[in-house]
Design goal:
By secondary structure, the protein is mainly alpha-helical. Helix content is 74%, strand content 3%. A hairpin with a 2-residue loop joins β5 and β6.
Length: 476
């Protein structure tokens, strides 16, 4: 059994499933701290980019490699997390992820060179990949059936909260250092503290992961039935029939199908059509350029004449809007459906990105003396935040919901793995290319992202099937 596969477990006796809900919320929140670190560590680099460029004298190409290096580590961490979790348990893998976050934070705070920094970012990326797999897996396996959907949303909420807190920390540190990311605080430059602060939540994550119980599903697969029985009683209540639940989970484990890549073959273009749709959704989610905002917004605003301190404040405001949009998506995705929400988001993103492209075309000056006219500056700020809002309320949530629902049970794990890999690759391509593209023509770059958003409307309308209200067992 691969932990990326989440087969639907039949509901056991619901009496007592609400059991110790406070305890379940606590262990879910502790596991979701991995999602917080996912969001924090992946976006904290945003505030440090200008300081890194100045400190090491690197150009756009090397800057793109440093920022995107974490994504390469993420792909490796995500690929290995499931296998390690099956062998050693979910809790041990959480602890390993916490240690990687901490070591990466310290190393990134004290680099000797740009390439040394890139190595520590790869290490942090591996922790991000681990967190992206292990936290939702653990939550799904410990949550009582009645509350599984709501508790599973903790992970996405933790990610966007981590992004927001990282931008707040960046702004506070830069402001304390006189509005300069190279300003000194306690012997180190502000950008170094930005990258190093991650050690604090990493330590908290390690401590909390040491206090929560192992997943019942892992304990049963490892033959530790007495421990599994204790955990099930804790999360589902004393009245739960733990023997029946153990027998149920044992049956599911025994019947697990191990999907292989060849199970995905057979379509007109090699892969099954539904797999191509999943890949398309994953790739379009990245080609609209959303991670340019999360990774580069500080230097983006500086490139059009806004000073460092204000650029970091704008980045924080954008991350708060990201949280609000995510809340809207969670409230609407089961009400109006996945497809309508994706179409609304695509149209909104296309318009907002096109407005950004128009505004940036009016930038005047060169080097460190660049500015936008008042009207275009206002349009750029409003449009960029509108883009974040439309993304967060649609594609930021819908794609992950779709990838968890759209594939037939027999190929779900393998198809999700392929789609997620395509997403990491597209994310890396956009991230590594942005510094050079923006230096070449920032307006044209944003118009290209607008073009991808417009194409996503056609893709969704033609190929995406609504999954609202459809049982997982009926996906075909």
């Amino acid at each position: 059994m691969s932990v990326t596969q989440q087969p639907a477990e039949p509901a056991a006796a619901e009496a007592g499933s609400s059991g110790r809900l406070g305890f379940v919320v606590f262990i879910t929140a502790a596991a979701a701290l991995g999602g917080f670190l996912f969001g924090y560590d992946s976006s904290v680099i945003n505030g440090a980019v200008s300081g890194i460029q100045d400190r090491f004298g690197v150009g756009d190409g090397v800057t793109g490699l440093i920022v995107s290096s974490a994504l390469l580590g993420s792909a490796v961490g995500a690929a290995m997390a499931g296998r390690f979790a099956d062998r050693y348990g979910r809790i041990k893998v959480m602890k390993a992820g916490a240690l990687l976050f901490a070591v990466s934070a310290v190393g990134s705070m004290l680099p000797f060179s740009a390439w040394d920094l890139a190595f520590w970012r790869v290490l942090g990326g591996a922790a991000i990949g681990i967190a992206s797999v292990i936290a939702p897996t653990y939550i799904a396996e410990v949550a009582p059936t009645r509350y599984r959907g709501r508790l599973a949303s903790f992970q996405q909420a933790a990610i966007v909260l981590g992004i927001a807190i990282s931008q707040l920390v960046n702004w506070v540190l830069a402001d304390t250092a006189g509005g300069d990311t190279r300003g000194h605080l306690l012997g180190l430059e502000a950008w170094q503290w930005m990258l190093g602060v991650c050690v604090v939540p990493a330590a908290v994550y390690f401590v909390l992961s040491s206090t929560i119980p192992e997943s019942p599903r892992y304990l049963i697969s490892a033959g530790r039935l007495d421990e599994a029985r204790t955990v099930l009683a804790e999360v589902e209540g004393k009245d739960a029939d733990t023997d029946a639940r153990i027998a149920e989970i044992q049956g599911l484990i025994a019947s697990d199908h191990r999907p292989r890549f060849r199970d995905l073959l057979g379509g007109r273009f090699g892969l099954l059509p539904v797999v191509w749709v999943g890949i398309g959704l994953s790739v379009f989610q990245q080609l609209v350029g959303i991670n340019v905002i999360f990774y580069y917004s500080s230097i983006l605003w500086q490139s059009v004449g806004i000073d460092q301190g204000n650029s970091l404040l704008i980045s924080f405001i954008g991350s708060v809007i990201n949280i609000l949009g995510t809340v809207v998506a969670i409230l609407l995705v089961d009400r109006i459906g996945r497809k309508p929400l994706a179409l609304i988001g695509s149209a909104g993103m296309a318009a907002a990105l096109a407005a950004c492209g128009w505004a940036f075309s009016s930038a005047t000056g060169s080097g460190g003396d660049v500015s936008l006219p008042d009207l275009q500056g206002t349009v750029a700020l409003v449009a960029a935040n509108a883009f974040v809002l439309f993304f967060a309320m649609s594609w930021g949530v819908v794609v992950w919901v779709m990838l968890g629902e759209m594939f037939p049970n027999r190929i779900r794990a393998a198809a999700l793995s392929v789609a997620a890999s395509a997403q990491w690759i597209a994310n890396w391509a956009i991230t590594v290319s942005f510094p050079s593209l923006s230096r070449w023509n920032l307006s044209a770059t944003y118009l290209a992202y607008a073009g991808f958003a417009a194409l996503s409307i056609l893709f969704v309308a033609r190929f995406m099937k609504e999954t609202k209200g459809v049982r997982l067992e009926d996906m075909g």
